[in-house]
Amino acid sequence: MTSDGAALILESTAIDQLAEQGWTLIRDFLAEEEIAELAAEAQRLWEAGAFKRAGIGRAERFQIRPDIRSDHILWLDENAPTRAQKVYWQRIETLRREINRAFFAGLVSFEAHFAVYPPGAFYRKHLDQFSSSSDRIISCVLYLNRDWREEYGGALRLYTDGNFIDIQPRAGTCVIFRSDSIYHEVLPSQRERFSVTGWFKRRPLVMPLEDPLRDRSPSPPFG
Ligand SMILES: O=C(O)CCC(=O)C(=O)O
Ligand SMILES: [Fe+2]
What we know:
By secondary structure, the chain is an alpha+beta fold. The chain is built from three helices and eleven strands. Strands 1-9-6-11-4-3-2 form a seven-stranded antiparallel beta sheet. Strands 5-10-7-8 form a four-stranded antiparallel beta sheet, with no helix packed on it. Helix 1 crosses helix 3 (83-103). The model is unreliable at 211-223 (pLDDT under 50). The structure holds 2-oxoglutaric acid and fe (ii) ion (FE2). Pfam families: 2OG-FeII_Oxy_3.
């Protein structure tokens, strides 16, 4: 990155594109050594067995469906970030403010996980919003593999206007898109493919009327 001014101009172009076409990308989202540190961390945790098979759906609808997605994930804990993760969260916070300023989007939080696609893994075409809730507004995927080559597969295919575009998962590229309307898929990857995937969220618009876990024993009889 050349200067803060240049970074700001880049970011505002990206945000214009996000508004116009529903997706954008920022290359060099973090410095090379910051990406390398995140990549080393993800690799170490993967080798230590800390990742879990990813599923689809939330809460009681959660299912492991290797026919739909076969990646493995590890959620980040915002309250206990490593040094590399702290830099990532700070960068995300800057982006959150930019998006809110440009769109009055009311994004209040962010959740993120590391993901690994082992050789052969994929994620079929989908939207990132759960059908049961609309609090995921903007998706954000940051890639960690240095020297990625097209022949490894593993591109992110974004579907837009009856067409599609393939994005190579190269270290430092961050793809940002609307969670409610941009269909996308991860094509089968032939190499271990690492990323940090996250979602900007709004406060849920409709609050549940009743907490299902609340004690529902009958109230004591009158008198
Ligand atoms: O890794 C990617 O390129 C996209 C991942 C994805 O679509 C997801 O986790 O919902
Ligand atoms: Fe997705």
